Every structure is written in C-alpha cells, then in structure tokens.
Amino acid sequence: MKALISPKLVAALLLGLLAGTVVFGFLLGPVVQGAATSPSQYQRPYPMPNQFYKQTEEFYVFASGGQQGGMYVYGVPSMKYLSEIPIFVEDQAWGWVAEDPKIRQMLTNPWTGELITRGDTHHPSASKTNGVYDGRWVFVNDKQHARIGRVDLDTFRTGQILWIPNTTGGVHGFNVGPDTKLAVQNFEHEQYPEKAIRDHLGLAIDPIKGPYVAGVAGIRIADDGTMSNGWQVWGPWQFDMARIGWGDSSGWLMTTAYNTERATDAVGMFQRDQDYLFFWNLASIEKAIADKKYVTTEQAPDVPVVSWKDVEVYVTPIPLNPHGLDISPTGKYFLTSGKATTLIAAVDIEKVLLAIKDQKVIGEEFGVKILDPDFVRAATMDLGMGPTHIEFDDKGYAYVGFFVDSDIKKVALGGPYVKLHGQQDKVWKVVDVLPAHYSVGHLVVPGGDTAKPYGKYIISMNKLTKDTFLNHGPLESENHELFTIGQTPAKLVDQMPLGPETHYSQAIPVSLIQGKTKHSYSEAAAAVGQQPSVEYDYAAKEVRVTMSVVRSFFTPGILTVPQGWMVKAKLISGETAMDISHGFALDSYNVSVSLDPGEVRDIEFVADKAGVHWYYCIWFCSELHMEMRGRMVVIPQSEWTPDKETKLPSA
Ligand code: K7E
Ligand code: CUA
Ligand code: CA
C-alpha cells in the first residue's frame, strides 16, 4: 500500500521545481485520447418534432456552479441547458437580488449583519426517502461562507439559507442523509474557534503557528424542509468529504481527512504515506448531547459543541490525500481515492464493525483507535493517475474518475455485487475505460449516490475542456460529457459546455419533479383585494406602495417621493398565464427585480437621487412591453409639499 508518488515529488510539484513531462502532464493534461463521436455520426432529429426533447428527457441534472454561487439545471439525455438557480450570489437575471428584503435577509450573516453576495457551491445533495431521491429539495453548501441553501423543486428557487456558526468558512463535504432528517457539513479549513471550544477540546492551539482544530456540523431537517443547526463535533482534524451511511452503514457518519499531518502548508499536508477515513457513531453524538457533555459558544448559545473525545469514533488508514469518498448502493463499501497516488481503497463496513468488536487495532492517535487496514479493506486497487470521485450504477459497477489520466475506469465490485454483474473473475478489476475530455472531477450516475442507482448514464464533469469547443478566450468553459453505460464498452453520446465551475451534481428522474412544478405562484390570488395604494409616513420618512403589475401597466403609474425617503414597494403580479413574467427596473437606481407569474415581491430602496426616473418592465411580455413603464418623481425635500403626494382614485 505504498504511495506511487513520493511526498518529495509532490512537494516539488507543488513548488513548481520540476520541469518536463511530469509537470506538463499535470499542467497541460493528456493528449487527446479516444476521439469523440465524429460530426457525421452526430445527429439531431430534423425536422424537430414538436416537444421532442421534453418527451424524451429522463433526468433533471442539478449541477453546482462553484464560484458562480448557485446551480445549473439541464436535461438528460438531451444535455440541453434549462436554467440557473441563484443561491448564494445575487443574480438579477433570475430575480435573485438583495433589494428584496426576504432575499437580503437570507444572504446576510446573522451574526455580523454583513450582506454576503459571494459564494462557492460544491456538493448538491437531494432529499431522499428510504435512501432514494424523492424530488422535494436539493440542498447545497457554500464552501466559502459555511452556509447551506435549500432549493425547492416546485419552484426551482432557493427557499432557505442556513448559516453555520462557530466557523470562519472553508467547509467542503456536504451530504444529506437517507431520510432527509440529518445533513452533515465538514470544516475543511482548520480553525481557531471561540475560547469555549478551545478549552473544551483541551488541545494546544497556537493562533499563528497552529496546529488548529476543525469538525463536522450536524444539520437537522424538519419534515417541511426547514434546516436548523443541530450540533457540532470538533477535534484535532479537518475533513474533506462527509457521507451519512445507510443500509449496511446505517447510523454511521464517514469523513475523510487529507491533512492528518495537521500542517498549515501544502508540502506539510503530504508528509504522511496514508491519511484517514473516519467512522463516527451518530447515536454516540446524540448521547453525548443528552448526557450534557458539550459546550456552547457566545455566537451560538443553542448549538451543542461536542468533543471528539466524548463520542465513538474510529479511523482506518487510506491512500494519502484522499479526495473521493463514495458509498456503494447497499451501504457496504466505502471507496476512497488518494489524489496523489494511483490507489483506490475499498473499505468494507461489515469488516469495520468486526474490527471494532474484535479490537483489530494497530495503534491510536489522539485517543482514537486505528483499525487495521488489512483487515477492514475488501481491496486496494491500483487504477491510474490522479483519482478523484466515484459513482455506482445499478449493475454492481463502480466508476472512478481520473484527473491526470483524463478517463473513467469502470470497476466490477466484489461481494454481494457479483450476482448483479456476474464478473466473478474480474472483481475489483477494470472492465472498461471511458475517455474524457479532459481531467475528470466529479461523476454523476443518476441515483449513483443512493441506495438505488438508476444507472443507464454517466456524466463526466471535466475540470478542463481545452480544444473541445470553440475557444472563447483564455477562460474556457467546463465540459459535461454524457456516456451510456447500459453496455460495455460505454459510449460517449454528447458533450456540453457549461459555465464555471461545476463540482458535484444530482440527476433526478423527471417523473419525480415534472408533475409538481408550478407555472405560477398562488400568492397573487391571496393578495387579491389588496388594491394599489400609496401611503406617506412623515415620521418614518417612508413611502409604502402596493403596486399592481399586469400586462401592460404598473399601477400606480406615477410615484412621487421626497428625496432621501425609503421606498417600500410590494409588487403584485396579476398574471396567471404560463411564462408571462414582468419586472421592475428603475432608471439610474441599483434596483431591478423580476416577477414570475403570480409572484408577489417586496423591494426596498432609498430614493436618494432627485429627478424623473422611469421604472420599466424587463421582460418582453406583450406587444405593449415597451409601453409598460411608469415614473418615480423624486423631489428635493425643500421643494416637497404634501399636495405633491401620489393620489390614487379610490376603488
Ligand atoms: Cu472534487 Cu468540492 Cu467534490 Cu470539486 S470537489 S471536483
Ligand atoms: Cu411586462 Cu414587459
Ligand atoms: Ca496528508
């Protein structure tokens, strides 16, 4: 189980000391291998049958946008882009703007009051029932700011953002459990937390030199999807990935750490030959809380923080600097990939439980028992350069992505999976290689992270595209490649450029979502009876407006405001027709909101610029779209008299 790249080589690569092929291999990626389907074989139906794509679509894909701050949505197998869902970053095109107080509140750090409109989404995780997608929600984390967003699949809009306390951010692995009651969020970046936590852990922590501490946050999810901070477990290590078990691994939380060295620089993080896979007994965390073995912080007085010493936790060594941590469909095998090795470990939870019972232990660190890797592993596979993430299909195969090799290796799982694929002689061996263009990050098989994968397709989410598409400047798009995997060899059927920068995705059957997608909001119906109105509050220096927005008028069509006053407007779309959106953009003000059919939105802004400012509709909604506009007239306070108030004819 020796690493094939030595820590020294890795250190040299990190420092850029080496020239030549190895560095070029890393920096430039491989040469083209396995030519893509040639243009002559590539056929779209023509003439296009009406609704062809809609009728043949099988899955919605929800792809994290990375530094785009939300998610992309597209259809499989068409690979047609459908939408974006803004979450952590303002996006006026999709109507996600901070002048809406509800959105502003979601984007505001509850402890500092700062409006945070930067984000980095990594790991979408769909809601499940009995370990299988149920089409209610997709949750996703913001690595930069330690927040979790919940996207509601009836509207494809963000319904909640939960901020995680006690951490400065840098949170990576996120996972929703098999029944959507618990989600977990790792702290990837080591921290120097509040004194209460430092004292409770009892570790020497130097704020400048380190080593620091980190942990995992448990997030409870109510039946209606409302998330709340449940608990945190802190200890000596940071974590990269987190998975909540199911089936054979029910009741366990698994995490990986690539920096078991507890270093503060990249070279230091490669000093060991092996890092750890952690097994946390979830019941022991609940018990520690019930036994009052926790502290709380000033920031979050109602979130129990438990020490790793007070819970049941074990580790086992895995190939160094692990990245992928993925669980086979029955919950039995944990495949972990060592980024800077060629090795994939397959750890068997049944053997882990036996090792705990029979004390198959090779040592301990910080009081945590180290389970014998030779005992708990079903296999250690030597598969290729730069392994990243892993997915599973419905036929007993695992798919491992390779950043450096730029391909996906299909591997036959052993144990109970042999009866699915029948490849007795080839277990834990490569049975197919899928060429990717280029440098695979995550993979997604529909349902490939659940108890019941749908199989049929795999999408390779490549970190680099290079020459694949029309070039568009130094910043190239991402490449999502679709393969069919119902047969061996797999077949590349399509490639799709997509914006920055997808990490993981979830592919959810159309049948679970399509029927419940709303075409309009019912809010406007509820707001019927709220006539347009304008109210002047001289004490608060506020103008409160209820404005009706319907083809092709804003009512009121004029709004007079004393300069410097706050405008609080409730915009009510009266539309019920499908796909008729309006908007409210205000000349020379930083205000632009979008109104979906039947949507009611509040906006707030200060009318600080005097003069005549038109508000106009931003969607081409009818033949009178251009005429759909009104005036906000802002009058200097010295010139304001109450007779200038906007008066509406009473209804
Ligand atoms: Cu590999 Cu954040 Cu899952 Cu990117 S992570 S690829
Ligand atoms: Cu309403 Cu354009
Ligand atoms: Ca390491």
List the helices and strands and how they pair.
Elements: H1 7-15, H2 21-28, H3 52-56, E1 59-64, E2 70-76, E3 80-86, H4 101-107, E4 125-129, E5 132-142, E6 147-152, E7 157-163, E8 174-176, E9 182-186, H5 195-201, E10 214-221, E11 227-235, E12 242-244, E13 252-257, E14 274-281, H6 282-290, E15 305-307, E16 313-319, E17 322-327, E18 333-338, E19 343-348, H7 349-357, E20 361-365, E21 368-371, H8 373-376, E22 377-382, E23 387-392, E24 397-402, E25 407-412, H9 418-421, E26 430-435, E27 440-444, E28 457-462, E29 478-484, E30 491-498, E31 505-509, H10 510-513, H11 523-527, E32 533-537, E33 542-550, E34 553-555, E35 558-562, E36 566-573, E37 582-586, E38 592-595, E39 600-606, E40 611-616, E41 629-635
Parallel strand pairs: 11-15, 16-21, 33-36, 35-41
Antiparallel strand pairs: 1-2, 1-31, 2-3, 4-5, 5-6, 6-7, 8-9, 9-10, 10-11, 12-13, 13-14, 14-16, 17-18, 18-19, 19-22, 20-21, 23-24, 24-25, 25-26, 27-28, 28-29, 29-30, 32-33, 33-34, 36-39, 37-38, 37-40, 40-41
The structure holds sulfanyl-(tricuprio-$l^{4}-sulfanyl)copper, dinuclear copper ion and calcium ion (CA).
